[in-house]
Predict the structure.
Amino acid sequence: MERVEGMKVERVDVADVEIGKSYPLYGTITKFIDDRPGTVLVEISYSMIARVHIKDPAAIERLKARAFEPLIVVGRVVGVNPQVVLECEKLIFGKKLEYSA
C-alpha cells in the first residue's frame, strides 16, 4: 500500500496503519466487489477494500469508467485483518485522460 505524505508517496505495511485514523492512500480501483447502490465495495490496488457510499446508479457507472486510473483515496481505517478496510471519505481522480490516435 502506498501512502501520500506531503508531496511524496511512500510504501507502508499493514502494521503501519492504525484503526480509526484517516489516511490519504495512492492507488487504483482494481475490482468492484459489490456495485449495488448504497455501500459500494471496491478493491484498491489488489490489496485494500474501500467502502464507498454511493446511492446513484449513474455515479456508480462513472466510477466504473474510471477504474484502473490513478487516484488518491482518503479513508478511515476500520479493519486490518487480513487486509486494510477503509471507510472512504473521498476519492480524488486526476484529469480525465483522453487518448486519440
